[in-house]
Amino acid sequence: MKFFVTLDEIRDPDHPAVGGKAFALSRLKRSGFRIPHSICVPAWVYDAFVEESGLRERIMLELNRKDLKEMRWEEIWDAGLRIRSMFLTKSLPGKMEASLREALDFHFPQNPVAVRSSSPQEDSATSSFAGLHESFINVHGAQSILDHIRLVWASLWSDASLLYRQELGLEVHRSSMAVLIQELIHGACSGVLFSRNPNDPSQVVLEAVHGLNQGLVDGQIEPDRWLIDRDSKRIVFHRAPERKLHFVPLGSGVRAVHLPQNLALSPPLEEAQVQSLLRLALQMEDSMGSPQDVEWTLHGESILVLQSRPITTLPSGSEKDQRKWYLSLRRSFENLQELRQRIEEVLIPAMTGEYEAMTALPLSQLPDGELAREIEHRQEAEKKWTNVYWDEFIPFAHGMRLFGQVYNDTMRPADPYEFLRLLGNSSLESLQRNDRLEKMASMVRQQKDIETLLREGRYLEAPSEFVERIQEFMNRFGDLSCPVTGVVQCTQGPDGLIRIILELARHPRESTLSAHQDAVELQKNFLSVFEGDELERARALLDLGRASYRLRDDDNIHLSRMESLKIAALMEAQKRLEIQGKLDLDGPTTEKIKKSFQEIPSLQPFPSSTRSSPQTPPGVKPRQLVGQPAGPGIARGRARVIGHSSNLQEFTHGEVLVCDAVDPNMTYVVPLASAIVERRGGMLIHGAIIAREYGLPCVTGVPDATRWIETGDLVTVDGFLGIVSVGSQSITESD
After folding, report:
1. I want to staple 487 with a disulfide (CB 3.0 to 4.6 A). Which of 46, 87, 466, 482 is the partner?
2. Among residues 536, 569, 604, which one ends one of the domains?
3. Residue 551 and residue 545: Cα distance in Å, rounded?
């Protein structure tokens, strides 16, 4: 077997093996275009590696835990992370490694390189995988290149890549990957060309930045942009952005640094160079036989083509095509830093300010007409912040994923989720609420007279400090009778809250000091790998990951508070209708408000899956359910299936929490649970995060969990393997 080919050796029959990127560059090189020195590791080498290492079967096992079409993107990310870890911890077979090392030493003895994907399925006339698979810039030395080849192979199984293939209807199980290794050219400027503007085919689109292309590709640096008429060759438009940064090779990667003033004040290209690139675009289109999307760099007087693909556009008008959204979840470190600043300094303060202003409004004193307008205002506010949640909060969750990827690439741990032990912290909103509950439970343990008063329903006669804590808790978090934070008395007032405090008082939790010490040691080991600027970047990445982890949990509570304001206004309208029998409004407005009453959570169950469950003969029940391992450990206990907020008030110590998804507003019962089982999947969803904070076994992504498991069933939860064994309601406690 030949483990690499040069661009000169590639011919038309090799296209399926070398992939779209390498094949296009080989054609362009034969046509006389300047291409950086490159070799290709064909897809048959990937196939040989996964067969000899046993990875193919393990990959299929990960992807067959659940139908890929039924997986949420968090579950697919988890599977992709586990697969990536497999590639990191498997060595190349001896003959393969020796042959590739010899080729790399010969072709790139001292030169830094770019290691790029070249999937046989990418860059075709019908699909483009631009940006989905990994590329690594400024890689030095044979060993590092070999490591990055495996990382490119692993990117075939990333969440974005799997989701994209699913959207296109491509056969995931037949996927393979070639790798292009290309001499790194440190161009004075770089950019992209569209030989035909997708919005106006009579024009060529040219974008350029100073330095390397990385900042343009990941969206961090806004490029200069030219539109050029194809026939007259005249520049019809030039947009000059504010130029602050450019990307340069630095250390073992690339980094954005400030532009010198003379470059910041000048466009990357002169008019003569714009015309040269225009000619290049037209020549390449003619040579390749279709409009081209070209990545290029300018080195001295020469224009070098880095890659070229047919221009493809996403289908228009399709609401089901989510590829653009999937791509938006993959952010660079610099992009995530900017997003964090916007979230922490602009969005959260604005959301909090809006919440506080509405909270201060005395709803009971508003005339009916003003109350109706306030309801509409609050509904619009909730809608606005829900959009912010999806557009900005959710993409910021990639911060903890990015940290996890860097941690695993650096440390190569046996447990691919070890990095999560560095991210957990007690500053999560839901844990702060639980901490307040625990402090009240501690007071009950220490003062038995308080317990007596609570059991007799006379909590107002308890010591003033305890009563004040109860009132303060309800003002901030609600009385726990509603599935939405901040709403008071959906069903039973403080009775449920008091019952939970009494249950917590009977079962104090163990100290988490050992977990904290473990996190400190892991952090020390991780940071010890880096020096100088790289150490500061590693610290910043860890801080970013922790902020992302914190927000991924807190954002639900922030959003719930906005929902609670809408509910409070609706409950005021409902109360007036019950007392007065009418509202002083026109008929349509009153009816509109009445229809909104269904949004009051006391009348609704917790959100659940909208998928229809298959019909099963009566009495048939599976003994074992398979999901995603999300919290290590094994526990056995009676199931408590949560479908409505009132079910939470019945929760007792040692039960297994079973639900569609652990909403942050349900978290207060977790300290009492022995394990967690959820239908919704993912290592980084709220339930999994909280389970690990409390050291509980957790299995997520269990299809129809709340259908197959009933309250009272004896279940065993294996958080290592992702398996839930289901017993019977009739099993005795002694069993």
Report:
1. 482
2. 604
3. 10
How far from chain centre, in Å, is Cα 446?
43
Name the DSSP letter for residue 222: P
Task: Compute the distance between CA of residue 162 and CA of residue 118 in angstroms, rounded to an integer.
Answer: 16
d(CA 631, CA 693): 9
Query: Do 299 and 219 share a domain, yes or no?
Result: yes
Q: Looking at the 3D structure of the chain, how many domains does it have?
A: 4
pLDDT of residue 732: 42
Q: Which of 328, 351, 381 is the last residue of a domain?
A: 328
Tell which residue, 269, 277, 313, 282, has the closest CA to residue 295: 277
> Would you state the structure tokens that stand for residue 407, as one six-digit string?
């941690």
Question: 178 with 203, same domain?
Answer: no
Predicted pLDDT of residue 129: 54
73 in the same domain as 31: yes
Residue 158 has pLDDT above 70, yes or no: yes
CA-to-CA dists, residue 181 to 84, 100, 281, 335, angstroms: 20, 11, 24, 27
In a domain, 358, yes or no: yes
- Domain boundaries, position 263: 189-313+324-328
Q: Considering only CA atoms, which of 566, 650, 575, 642 is closest in space to residue 601?
A: 566
Burial 571-600 (b: 16+ CB within 10 A, else e): bbbbebeeeeeebebeeebbeebeebeeeb
Contact 680, 687 (CB under 8 A): yes
Whether 511 and 502 have beta carbons less than 8 Å apart is answered as no
Judge whether 517 lies within some domain: yes
Q: What is the mean pLDDT of residues 105-131?
A: 76
* 735 within some domain: no
Q: Which long-range contacts (CB under 8 A, 24 or more apart) does 89-93 make?
A: 89/412, 89/414, 90/49, 90/53, 90/55, 90/150, 92/49, 92/146, 92/150, 93/48, 93/49, 93/52, 93/53
Q: How far apart are CA 210 and CA 213, in angstroms?
A: 8
Whether 402 and 442 map to the same domain: the answer is: yes
- Check residues 255 and 92 and name the one with the higher pLDDT: 92
- pTM for the predicted model, two decimal places: 0.81
Do 218 and 176 share a structural domain? Answer: no
Instruction: Please indicate, yes or no, whether residues 367 and 481 belong to a single structural domain of this protein.
Output: yes
319 lies in a domain?
no
Residues in Cβ contact with 525 at an 8 Å cutoff, skipping those fewer than 6 apart: 411
Beta bridge partners of 224: 208
Cβ neighbors of 604 (< 8 A, separation 6 or more) are 483, 598
348 and 299 both lie in a single domain? no
Residues 6+ apart with CB under 8 A from 184: 36, 111, 112, 113, 114, 137, 138, 249
Residues 39 and 175 in one domain: yes
> For the purposes of burial, counting CB atoms within 10 Å of the CB of 621, is it exposed (0-12), middle (13-18) or buried (19 or more)?
middle
pLDDT by residue (tens digit) across 434-484?
Answer: 999 999 999 999 998 999 999 998 989 999 999 999 999 988 888 877 767
3-class SS of residue 163: helix
